Structures are given as structure tokens and as C-alpha cells.
Amino acid sequence: MKTDTPVTIRRGDYAPPAYLVDEVALEFRLDPAATLVRARLALRRNPAAAPDAPLRLDGEGLQLVEARLDGAVLPPDRCRIGEDGALTLLDPPAAGVLETLVRIAPESNTALSGLYTSGGNYYTQCEAEGFRRITFFPDRPDVMSRYEVTITADRTLCPVLLSNGNPAGSGLGDGNTHWARWVDPHPKPSYLFALVAGDLVNVADRFTTRSGREVALNIWVRRGDEDRCGHAMDSLKRSMAWDEQVFGLEYDLDVFNIAAVSDFNMGAMENKGLNVFNTKYVLASPESATDGDWQGIETVVAHEYFHNWTGNRVTCRDWFQLSLKEGLTVFRDQEFSADMGSRAVKRIRDVRGLRAAQFPEDAGPMAHPVRPDSYIEIDNFYTPTVYQKGAEVVRLIHTRIGPAAFRRGMDLYIARNDNQAVTIEDFVAAMQEASGIDLSAFMGWYDQAGTPELAAEDRYDPEARRYTLTLRQSTPPTPGQPAKRPLPIPVAMGLLGPDGAALPTRLAGENAAQSGTRTLLLEAAEQSFTFEDVPAPPVPSLLRSFSAPVRLQGVPREQLRFLAVHDSDPFVRWESGQQYAASVMLEMVAAAQRGEAPGFDPALAEAVANTLAAAEADPAFAAEALSLPGEGFLADQMAVADPVAIHRVRQGLRAEIGRRCGPALRAAYGSLAETGPYRIDGRSIGRRALRNACLGYLVAAGDAALAKAQFDAATNMTDSLAALSLLADAATPAREEALAAFHARWRGDALVLDKWFSIQAMADRPDAIEAMRQLYAHPDFDLRNPNRARALIGAFAAGNPAHFHAESGEGYRFLADAVIALDPINGSIAARLIGPLGQWRRQAPSRGALMRRELQRVLDTPNLSKGTFEKASKALL
Ligand code: B3K
Ligand code: ZN
């Protein structure tokens, strides 16, 4: 954990592993303070490596008890443990069996990487580099081995003993112990190893694969949580069926286990045959989970399941290739969710997420390509760029070659690379071969950071009935990449006539008639497309379904208004409404900054009225259309952000719309009230979202009592929380009453208590910082629990810009204090939370200086973890 000389790892320095490990036998004797791990590794020199490369096994914090080579104890002069914790064998043989016995202390592992305890049970997290905290091993993804794991533990404390693969025996041991053995027939990298043991209960089900394999499905939870696993199990079965239908991919073991744990660094982990999940993505009941939680569970269960092929069977050669598995698997889970519900609404949500997290990252100090060139701490690169932009790049390829060729490409990719650790080139090569389309230029999307900007210019010649569309792209510089080249950008588009109807889109030189959506491929910095036989001056509809992760700029307001009403593509309809509102709001912010009254554009109220009038057809879409662009989205479009002004303008606008559209909003609110039992189908979710959007405007316009009434009457968490979050902003006794009632009711439910913390962290109140300090000192706050730390600190820094960026700098100080306190406990979470301080360049100089001061204070902290060091130092560059 020393940061004196943090080493930068470079993609160009890749060298094959010196040794391969064909077989691994692990024996665990579990004890919270002193677990013994015996590892037998069948090693052999890698023919692809330099013949004199040393045999070096990664290790971190391991206490070596004994080492043997081919049965004989290794004398101290044959092996050495370096300062970094790694074990080097001097004078190593070409092949042999290395046996090590180490001691570790899971109960003191607060980093939650490696083997740790949570509530008395044992769990592991090995990706990316946690396996080296369990045993000595070449802990890199291109060393793939077959594992046999034997676990021995106290049978009263640990009745359940799980690992990867299929069960292969169990029995009683000495004293009060028992043991279980697991064999995983599929070779895998060490990051996919998992062990779970403890006092757990299972919810069981079955799945028969289409070739007839019977798979036992289990979700393992703590006693009392069994009745909240139904949705996760259902999501799992639907994922398994979908992957068979859409990609022809079947599950490949006899059991599929999911274990849920409340202390977990991220959402979930795809360990082979034994997924480990944050409880947040498993447990749900109507009373305790919001609609967003239900959707999150479906997505994450699917994502981890899909990794079984894209990630586990075909894995990454090195961590620079992370998006090979993550981008592709996010693309797959997005497609799954689109098939399960509304494709258009799913796309809107995904784009919203991309813009909220990835676009700012791409414009900030941590900007990196989807395939990074270097890192200090790989944990810092599990980013929106690697995941979400990576998924967009897979989608670009999908759009470019079409679904049928994409499916053939997937078949080829898997057949050719099964049980291997490969690179992004291998993926693109399979897609290229299967489609016969040259995709080499698409590699630029993996290697170039930054968000391309796209602009259009057009000309209509009424005599010739010819329409010319000129598209231009450019990408602003990012750290380390001053000059950018043009990328291939598929632009899905259509042309609309004056009445909103689709016009023909036949390009000059084409014979066949074309209409509806077609995709232009912009390959150069500038390119013109000429359409023939266009009967009237058209309005272009560009980037349908958001066909590329770019910023489309400069669409005139009248066109936005027209497209928001008339376009056939729901994404463009939504997008045009958002862009229109954003441009109006940015003007209002500028006015506010000049000290002028911001004014009001009645078109915004009209749009709300129109949306409400047509809402019945698709309430979920209407809810999306009704939401004003977020504060982060607006800040992202300003040269110098002004979070406080943005917040005021947005709130003011919400109030004004609430007043002007009061009757329509109230009528919709009333008619959308739920009558029957709680249901989580798309339509019911959409109706609740729309109703709560209406509530938001009405409360903004002054009707806090309506929120209190909804809060008191709510029978599901979505409605309860929507009301509570509005009340949290209101300086009324109802706020304190509701917050206290919520706490009293849910104090025993950690996941709901997280929401209680988050809502307050995001509240707009004059004493926001003081409230944060009190919550931080609250007896229910626990910095060591990642969910709780994120719920309070993360929600404040990322979700409450107006107060995080308070003029006084106290918001920044609060965040830095928390990061400094958390870093020695869990460096990975600390490094994640520090992110918002890195956006100082986008703020006014006075704020920027305060932010830099806090970054420097973090950086000056002794013994900083290398992850936090990397984030803070790169932010200051
Ligand atoms: N692969 C894991 C993430 C591991 C994060 C390590 N810091 C979950 C996922 O993407 O599915
Ligand atoms: Zn993943």
C-alpha cells in the first residue's frame, strides 16, 4: 500500500507469462483470524515466454508457513518474498508442483478484496487482483487453470461451503468440522475464483437447457431474506433462456449459485458458477424496493450471467482488454432488458446514464480510451468509459454490420477463442470476418479518448429536388492525446417533410427507392451526402436511436420543436425535447448570471401539456419526456459550470411549469393512482414514474401537502421514496416527521436505510453541510460498509451539486475528510468517491482553487493507497 514509487503499468509492455499453471488444488481451513490456505500448483514453463524468465508468484499480505517443490521443502535460499509481497523462486525447474501454505486473516480484511468476512460468513472478491491476497499465484488473466477446491470449516458456524464448478464430495472432518470439495472442469483465470461459506439458506429452482442439461439454481442469503429472492431468480431464468434464443449460448455446469452479501465493493461478480452479489441486486419486495431497484436486479443478474460466455469462457489477455468482456456484456444486458420491456425507454435511460457519467469522464482529467494505455491501479479503470462507452462501441459495430452478421460474428468469436485469454482485436476480427466489412477504422473507437462532436449543415435545391447534408466531426483533446483523428460514425437518419411525414432518402447514385430510417457512415472529418427526388425542404432527423456516442450540436430550436412532435423515432422525439429544454435553460442560467430575471418560454409548458395529453399510449416514455434535463447534463454543456445557478433555474422552472400546468398535472396525478395490487410490469412501472413526475412539478409549485399525503398512504417503496425525496427539500415540520417515520419503520433493513441516507444527502436545504456532518456521525452510519458510504458520501458529491459546490468550499472539505478517513480502510471505495473533486477545471477559478486544495490535502496524506493516489494526482495535473 506504499505510494512512494507507484508503478505505471503500460499496455505496450505486455509479455506472455513465464509459467503456466495447468492445475490448481486449493485447501482452505477457515478461521476468521487465521485461515490456512494450501495451494498445489502444477506449473510449467510457457513455451511462448523467454526461456530464462523468473518464476514469480504474486502475493499480498500473505504469511508464508511453508513452501515445497515436488514434495521437498524449499530452503530459504531458493525462494524470496519481495517488498511487494511476491514470491520468486530462484533457479526454477522447467516444470514441477509447487506447494505453498499461507496464513491469512479474513476478519481484518476491510478492503473486501481477497477473502473476507461479513456478518460472520466468508466471501471472496478476486477481480482484478484479489487472488494474490489469498495465495501465491501468477495473478493475471492469461494464466488459465483447472481448479479443485476443498473447504474445511466448523460445521455449526459454516454449514454451507461453496466454490466454483460442480460439487465433488463432502464429509465430516476432525473435531466439529466438515468439508466440501468443488471441481470446476473449465479452465479459468484466478480472478474468477470464489469461495463462500457460512450460515446461509438457499432459495432453489431448476433450469433445463435447450440441449437437456439439468441445472440446479440456488440463491444463498442470510436467514430471513429468503422471501425476497423471487425476482432475482426469475431474472436469472429469463437470462438463461434469452442467451440461448438470441446467441445460442447455453449454461455449462450442473449448478449455478448466487450468494448475496451486504459488504461488497461493487454490484456483483461473475465468478464461474458462483456469482457473488451485493444484496442490493438480489433482495426485493414491493414494500422495500423501488421500481428502479427491480430493474437494477434484472439487469445485474443478466449481466453477470452473460459473463459466463463473454468473460469467463472467453476471457481477457490482460486488464487493458477489460472492455472486451465488460463492453460486450453491457451491450448484451442492454439488449436483454430492451427485449424484456420497452426498447425505446431502455435506450433513453441508457443514453441518459452515458451522458451523466461517461461524457463528463471523457471531458475530465481521468479521460481514457475504452482500451486504456496505462494505469497505476486497475481498480480505477472499471469506469463508465470501459463499461458504457465500451457497450456503445459494440453497438456501433452491431449497427454497421447488422444483426445477422453480428450474430455470426459472435458465433465465430466464441468458437475460435473458447477457453482462451484474448484481445479486443480478436473480437473485431471475428466481426469483420463474419460480415466481410472492413472494421479496421473502428479500432479508433477503442484507442481514442474523448467524445466526438458532430454538426450538420444542409442545403435544399427546389428546382433539382436535391437535398445535401454535410456532416462534420471533431474531438476535443484529452490528457495525453492532443490531436484526434476522425472516427467512423454511423448516423441513423431520416428526412421529414413539412407535415412531419417521412420523405424518400435515396442517395445520388442509388437506384432503389429508400425511405424510413437509413444509416449514413461518416468516415472523414467532413462529408456530404446528396439525396435525390426530395419533394420538399426536409427537416433532418439525425442520430436515431442514438446511433453513436457523440454530441450532436447546433440543431436549430425550431427543428428541435418540430422533431419533438413529429419524428417517427421515439429516441429523437425525446432527445429533441431535452435539447430544446436544455438550450432554453442554459439561456436562463446566463440571464441569472447577469442578474436578470430568467423569463419563461411558454413552449416548455405546452410540451408538458402535450406530453400529458398523449401519455396514455406509453406512460414510461411520457415520464422520460416530462423530466427536465438534469443538472449535470446542463453543467456539462457550459464552458464554466455554475452549479448553484443551474439548480436555482431548474427548480424555478419546475415551479413555473407546476403552476402553469397545475390542472393537467393534477388530473393526470389523480387518474394514474394505482387501484389493484402492486405490479412490476412495464406499464405499471411507467404509470408510477409518470405520476411521480407530476407530483414533482406540483410540489415544486408549492403543494408539499400532496407529497406528505402520498408518503402517508404509500404501499410501495417507489411512491414512498418519491414523496420522501420531495419532502426532504421542504422546510416544513412534515419533512422531519416523514424522515423520522421512515427511519423508525426501516431501521432494521440496511438497503432501505441506505435510501434514507441518500435522500438526505441529496436534499436541498440551507444547512446541507451541517446535515451531512450529522448524518456522518449518525449511529447507523458505517464508513466500512461500501453501500452505506456510497449512500451518504457518494450521493452528496455526485447527486447534490448545488451544495457540494457551496461557495464556502465546505462541501469539498467534507468529501476530502471522508476520503482520508476511508482510504486506510478501503482504498478502492475511497478512490471511487474522490472522483467529483477532479472536475475542478470545469468550475469557476474560486471554486477550482478550493477543490485543488482538498485534492492536495488528500495527496499529502501518508500511506495513501495507490488507487487514491492515482486519482488525486491525475486530477491535479
Ligand atoms: N467484473 C465485475 C467487476 C469487478 C470490479 C473489480 N474492481 C462485475 C461486472 O462487471 O460484472
Ligand atoms: Zn461485467
Automatic annotation (TrEMBL):
Its EC number is 3.4.11.2. Residues 558-876 form the Peptidase M1 alanyl aminopeptidase C-terminal domain. Residues 109-192 form the Aminopeptidase N-like N-terminal domain. One of its GO terms (molecular function) is metallopeptidase activity. Keywords: Aminopeptidase, Hydrolase, Metal-binding, Metalloprotease, Protease, Zinc. Its cofactor is Zn(2+). The keyword Metal-binding applies. The keyword Zinc applies. Residues 450-553 form the Peptidase M1 alanyl aminopeptidase Ig-like fold domain. Pfam families: DUF3458, DUF3458_C, Peptidase_M1, Peptidase_M1_N. It catalyses: Release of an N-terminal amino acid, Xaa-|-Yaa- from a peptide, amide or arylamide. Xaa is preferably Ala, but may be most amino acids including Pro (slow action). When a terminal hydrophobic residue is followed by a prolyl residue, the two may be released as an intact Xaa-Pro dipeptide. GO terms for biological process: proteolysis. It is an enzyme of class 3 (hydrolase). SUPFAM superfamilies: Leukotriene A4 hydrolase N-terminal domain (SSF63737), Metalloproteases ('zincins'), catalytic domain (SSF55486). It comes from the Bacteria. CDD domains: M1_APN. Residues 232-444 form the Peptidase M1 membrane alanine aminopeptidase domain. Belongs to the peptidase M1 family. This is Aminopeptidase N. It comes from Roseicella frigidaeris.
